[in-house]
Amino acid sequence: MAVQIKGLVLLMACVLAGGSHAGALSGMATAVSATPAELSSEEEQDRLLIGRSFFTVPWVAAPSATTARDGLGPLFNSNTCASCHQAKMAGHLLNDRHEQSRALVVKLSQPQKHALRDKTTITVPDPVYGSQIAINGVSGVLYEATPGLDMQVKTVVFPDGTEVGLSWPVPYLKRLNYGPLSPDTRLSLRLAPMLNGTGLIEQIPEQAILAGADPNDRNRDGISGKANWVYDPLLQAFKLGRFGHKASQASVMMQTADAAAHDMGLTNPYFPEELCGSTQTACLQAPAGRPSARGETLDLPMHRLEAISFYVNHLNGSPKRRSDVLPQALAAGKALFQAVGCVQCHRPSFKTQKGQTIYPYSDFLLHDLGPALADARPEFDAQPNEWRTAPLWGSAEKVRQGWRFLHDGRAANHLEAILWHDAEAAASRQAFMQLNVTEREQLIQFLESL
């Protein structure tokens, strides 16, 4: 990392990281990297370094000799952001030990109930276990449960006789350490997203996204993109959601705060209280991290949350496309992508507020994808059957790393992902299935190049 900074700031970053400078910067080498040369000031370069440290270096449980990162848990899934977002860990259902990947979390919700908080309807959690199962606990605090996956299978037959087997994971929980779930609670899976390009997505003007919305399908094309308006408690305002599988996060900072709280048990300005259930006594009584030198009592106070968000926002911009595909093959696949109607939701490009043209291949709106993908979890205005159009950029890297697709990783490749589309996307799926084998391969090759 070719950054020239003052020795004092470098020393601070090393101390915050709990190790050497080299160790603090090595964790993300195989996954993502930032571009310090593009930063305009030494202050921004310093913030990038500190944010990267808090993203990659493990947090520890309190009490600890350090006050910088001693807020882990009491209940948690991972001890670093990188645990879910490194290339070798993210995008998979199972890890190398054939256990459920940390990048795949189990969400809890009661879809038939409604509650109001911060002037908006919220997803109702389980009364004991909250909104996400924690698979780990600090010393003296029992973890909540051990998730498992049952794989279901069905076969799809193309008009030309080609058969494709589709599988999907059905989550279950064993060893529930705090009693049974409520009978009204449902389980949902969420796979951690790729982070490259998030800073560019945040720079898309709100009106540019809203221009594509047609919630009542006034043009009668069968596509009714809908905005998800989410409440930001710090701004005390509703903002356009654009991150997350259901567009339920309005900003990188909001998304970072949510992951910090639910995945690592870190209190922060968005989640100032520990996420312990009222009957989880050991969790409620667990030691809290000592106040920082500034007197801050939150595990992740605003300046650290801003630093992590700044780092995520400056991960390398648009994901790199493959350069080894023949231009004529790409042209053919792109034409078919347009002809079958994929571009109606997977909008190719936007201009950022800085005038840069980016190619995320998403409209960042909610669409009904049918009952087979519905997972009994509403989020703000997003109903269980509605999902944000997944950005297609980064597909080349995902294919290279063997990532899986869709919100729960059920699709092993783009072909399977297409076959899961229904409702608003049913016509496009049927048009794809009518293509001959060569044409289908050309369209898939185009997707894999993005």
UniProtKB/TrEMBL annotation:
Domain Cytochrome c: 328-450
Name of this chain's protein: C-type cytochrome
One Pfam family linked to the record: DHOR
Family matches, as SUPFAM superfamilies: Cytochrome c (SSF46626)
Keywords assigned by UniProt, alphabetized: Heme, Iron, Metal-binding, Signal
Leader sequence residues: 1-22
InterPro entries in the cross-refs: Cyt_c-like_dom, Cyt_c-like_dom_sf, Cytochrome_c_Peroxidase/MauG, DHOR
